[in-house]
Amino acid sequence: MNPISLFCILAGVALNACAQLLLKAGTNAVGHFEFTRANILPIGFRLATQLPIIGGLACYVVSVVVWVVGLSRVDVSIAYPMLSLGYVVNAFAAWYLFGEVLSMQRLIGIGIILIGVFVLARS
Question: What are the domain boundaries of the chain?
Fold first, then answer.
């Protein structure tokens, strides 16, 4: 994998992870909600007008463009598993930004993911 291909794949992963974090920040701003017929429009409007959610959706759009460029250069059997790096990024970012718990079990899972990506990248 050449540097440009690697950049496209990692940029796609980073943008996807950023999108998830922004969506979480937007839903945190709205708070816990239930979708019912009575509140689907008010909650939908509140969600649609949250800047972090708009930013998250924009990150998704850009990530798809970057990802398509990456897929044009890298086998999908290599590129797609690289998306699991997003789990690692999001776990640590959610711990740092949102105070989510990183239990030993989660850290072991993250380690397994990193080992798998390393083995895959070396193939």
Answer: 3-122
